[in-house]
Amino acid sequence: MTILVVAATMEEIEPSLSFLEDNGITYLITGVGMVSTTYALTKYLQQHKVDLLLHVGIGGILDQSACLGEVYQILTDEIFGLGADNNGSFVPIEELGFGKRIYTQHPPANMQLPDVDKAQGITVNRVHGAPDNIIRLQQQYQKLLIESMEGAAVFFVAEQEKIYCLQFRATSNYIEPRNRDAWEIGLAVKNLNVFLQQLLGFLNQGG
């Protein structure tokens, strides 16, 4: 099985670069955001055959009681706010009849994976940082929620190209008013890469 590790930034997978190269595992750095991710990944797939996209990165978590640095498997991811504003009410793209905003992981059948907590993702162009908007998120999403700027784009491309796809994220911060002093990026990156190497070793052994 040909695996492509996909990340938005080099920093997110830098601790695993030697591991990836030593094991002949290809990786792609797409750049930050849905547009860059969709373009870079689609361009790559036009030139290379891939069986499984393994999208990894860090993200913000809505649940303030959760421990930062934990790794989650993202089961579904949503292009947040894709639709129309109807006098203050949100009309999703599905109701407009122009597409969909929610995409799901697509693992190979019967693939066994390491057991980590599961979460729902939202993919945004602007990360949340205003109290009123965060309150609305808390009212809208009852399940464990993780925010990124790329996840749904990878799921979207995988669906279009009919390629297996998984996404894992380590939480570096809470979804709250911007507070860099409280971020745990180093811990998130460390834990993400420990997990990534374990996961790839697990997959190479056939799950």
TrEMBL record:
<feature type="domain" description="Nucleoside phosphorylase">
    <location>
        <begin position="24"/>
        <end position="191"/>
    </location>
</feature>
<dbReference type="GO" id="GO:0009116">
    <property type="term" value="P:nucleoside metabolic process"/>
</dbReference>
<protein>
    <submittedName>
        <fullName>Futalosine hydrolase</fullName>
    </submittedName>
</protein>
<dbReference type="InterPro" id="IPR000845">
    <property type="entry name" value="Nucleoside_phosphorylase_d"/>
</dbReference>
<keyword id="KW-0378">Hydrolase</keyword>
<dbReference type="Pfam" id="PF01048">
    <property type="entry name" value="PNP_UDP_1"/>
</dbReference>
<dbReference type="GO" id="GO:0019284">
    <property type="term" value="P:L-methionine salvage from S-adenosylmethionine"/>
</dbReference>
<dbReference type="GO" id="GO:0008782">
    <property type="term" value="F:adenosylhomocysteine nucleosidase activity"/>
</dbReference>
<dbReference type="GO" id="GO:0005829">
    <property type="term" value="C:cytosol"/>
</dbReference>
<dbReference type="InterPro" id="IPR035994">
    <property type="entry name" value="Nucleoside_phosphorylase_sf"/>
</dbReference>
<dbReference type="GO" id="GO:0008930">
    <property type="term" value="F:methylthioadenosine nucleosidase activity"/>
</dbReference>
